[in-house]
């Protein structure tokens, strides 16, 4: 995937626990007008995750801030400052925050319909295969029964043969 950087938003990593959005704003305001400052929170601890984002109104201001603040020290920690990548939406087909969450709804419904159709066709195919196997088994059973009847018709009963021979010997 080709990720486009946001030239006016900076990623600021290596933040100390004491740093909040107000302090981060104060550290970057000398470079130009700031549109937004965010420090994403950890859901478990409700503290920021040691990084934040600073969005400037002008790209040139963001470039100047990155040049000056990358490697700088804030509250005893060395900062890493780079251009930010766009935020990704979890679960979205395209994955970009610039798109509304319902943007891939049509393709999702199409995929669901295709999957349901495939499952229906597979079920029909399996049912047809079972019916064909059952028919084949019945034909084989009928053929075996027919062979057994023929064998019994062609073979004489050994007791009947013995009685017939005994009668022949008595009459002779």
Looking at CATH, the homologous superfamily of the largest domain is RRM (RNA recognition motif) domain
Which structural class do you get from the secondary structure elements? alpha+beta
Shape: rod-shaped
Query: Poorly predicted ranges (pLDDT <50, ≥5 residues)?
Result: none
CATH classification, class level of the largest domain = Alpha Beta
The order of strands across the largest sheet is 2-3-1-6
Percentage of residues assigned to helices = 40-55%
State the oligomer. single chain
- The number of distinct helices, counting runs of at least 4 residues, comes to 4
Under the CATH scheme, the architecture of the largest domain is 2-Layer Sandwich
What Rg do the Cα atoms give? 42 Å
Give the termini distance in whole angstroms.
Answer: 105 Å
Extended strand count = 6
Q: SSE order in H/E notation?
A: EHEEHEEEHH
Mean pLDDT: 82
CATH topology category name of the largest domain? Alpha-Beta Plaits
Provide the domain count: 2
What is this entry, summarized?
This protein has helices at 21-28, 59-69, 105-154, 158-171, and strands spanning 6-13, 34-38, 51-56, 73-74, 77-78, 80-84.
Summarize the helices and strands and which ones pair or pack.
Blueprint: E1 6-13, H1 21-28, E2 34-38, E3 51-56, H2 59-69, E4 73-74, E5 77-78, E6 80-84, H3 105-154, H4 158-171
Antiparallel strand pairs: 1-3, 1-6, 2-3, 4-5
Main traits of this protein?
172 residues; Alpha-Beta Plaits; 2 domains; four-stranded antiparallel β-sheet; two-stranded antiparallel sheet; 6 strands
């Amino acid at each position: 995937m080709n990720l486009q950087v946001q030239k006016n938003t900076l990623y600021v990593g290596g933040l100390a626990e004491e740093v909040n959005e107000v302090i981060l704003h104060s550290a970057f305001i000398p470079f130009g007008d700031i549109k937004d400052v965010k420090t994403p929170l950890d859901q478990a601890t409700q503290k920021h995750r040691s990084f934040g984002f600073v969005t400037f109104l002008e790209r040139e201001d963001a470039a100047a801030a990155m040049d000056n603040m990358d490697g700088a020290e804030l509250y005893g920690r060395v900062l890493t400052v780079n251009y930010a990548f766009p935020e990704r939406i979890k679960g979205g087909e395209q994955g970009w925050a610039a798109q509304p969450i319902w943007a891939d709804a049509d393709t999702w419904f199409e995929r669901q319909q295709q999957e349901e159709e495939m499952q229906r066709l597979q079920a029909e195919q399996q049912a047809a295969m079972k019916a064909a196997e059952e028919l084949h088994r019945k034909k084989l059973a009928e053929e075996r029964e027919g062979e057994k009847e023929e064998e019994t018709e062609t073979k004489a009963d050994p007791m009947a043969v013995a009685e017939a021979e005994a009668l022949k010997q008595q009459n002779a």
